[in-house]
UniProtKB/TrEMBL annotation:
It comes from the Bacteria. This is TetR family transcriptional regulator. SUPFAM superfamilies: Homeodomain-like, Tetracyclin repressor-like, C-terminal domain. It comes from Gordonia asplenii. Keywords: DNA-binding, Transcription, Transcription regulation.
Amino acid sequence: MRSTPSRTFTEDARRRQIVDCAIELIADVGYPQASQAKIAERAGIAKSVVLYHFANKDDLVTEIVNTVFTKAAAIMVPAIAAAPNATEKLTAYIDANGQFLATHRREAVALFEISNSYRSSDGLRLDQQAQKTVEAQGIPPEFALLDPQAIVELGISTGEFRADLDPAMVRNAIRGSLDGAVSDMFRNPDYDIHAFTETLKVLYLNAIGAPR
């Protein structure tokens, strides 16, 4: 990509088009098959135009991930922030995830595909690349509430959740369950994400709630 201090409206629009087409293609055929040439073909432009805006696939993947997380944050952050306690925040986290998956199926599937198949030019998986970025730049404020570990830690501190829990393990379990739903959505376009999130809330809120 060119090293210019700012982009024109037309350049921003073209970048959005490329990212949107890349998301569609990855969701349809998988990340390994979504070459820059095929993305250009999907967008109806020359491959050189893709390379003009994104010097390599790493740059494009970074923009795709930021785009998907920004869309997810727009749905999830207000709901989680408005919840008055940890129990309601975790409920909002699961519900908002379900809303995002239901309304942004292709984005969710594309991110799932990238998470499973992507390797950066220096061999890093997406989670490793993300951790490297966080260590260097910190977590963007708009993304901080997307991590359920902080909600679990809050619930333990307030006595809402069991004190013997490992917050990181609970986070991984919840995220793994949600990833499983995306995998099911990929195989079954009629997958009932609402029924899934209702089940997920019953399972986790009962399992981690403080003894009464």
